């Protein structure tokens, strides 16, 4: 497993050496969302009984930042290696496709959780959050970052240019994240969009994560965790198959 550990360490250093861009910038973006939406809606909206809108908003922003950065880490690393041509040096090493997958996955989880934790710590200056079910918080953070890390590997493999990856992020990842209940409860949606939201796996990650703080959610946290776990397994199986076949990696 030394090869896997070396690749993992390389991926950690890759994003940490530019932490101002990879960690500080997402935290600043989340703070801007918090300041704008809480200022506009804090006195006008209460989603859960006894929970202020600002408090409701924070877990959604934490998880949104975690998901987006977990995806960005693995996808950007792979597309950068493919465009620069140094992917061949990884493929020549005696690292199995499983070790390759685990190293990229673990590094993506590390970046996502680092950003999410940073957002949470900074927002503590604005609002205090209860931790009613900490194991749900931890479980959804780990499963969400793992699912997005695996999806990022798929995106990095299937795309060949930075603009293709940007399209993947802007037209798939970003809409699914924003329409997952970060800023609202799906019970406030019209019936059609309420049902559509239930087909969005990101919704279950954010709703279950928020349940860990307040003990309130739109669906059962056990159901949410099951759906997220199944989604992760399916994406991981597809990712491993792509890596094993060398699709768009071995020329």
Walkthrough of the structure:
With about 250 residues, the chain is mainly alpha-helical. The protein has one domain. Helices cover about 75% and strands about 0% of the residues. Helix 3 runs parallel beside helix 6. It is globular, with a radius of gyration of 18 Å.
How would the blueprint of this fold be written?
Elements: H1 2-16, H2 19-41, H3 53-84, H4 87-91, H5 97-123, H6 134-158, H7 162-178, H8 191-197, H9 201-214, H10 221-245
Strand content: under 5%
From the spread of the alpha carbons, the general shape counts as: globular
N-to-C span: 26 Å
Tell me the number of structural domains.
1
Low-confidence stretches: none
H/E element sequence: HHHHHHHHHH
Helix content: over 70%
Number of helical elements: 10
Taking all Cα atoms into account, the compactness measure Rg is 18 Å
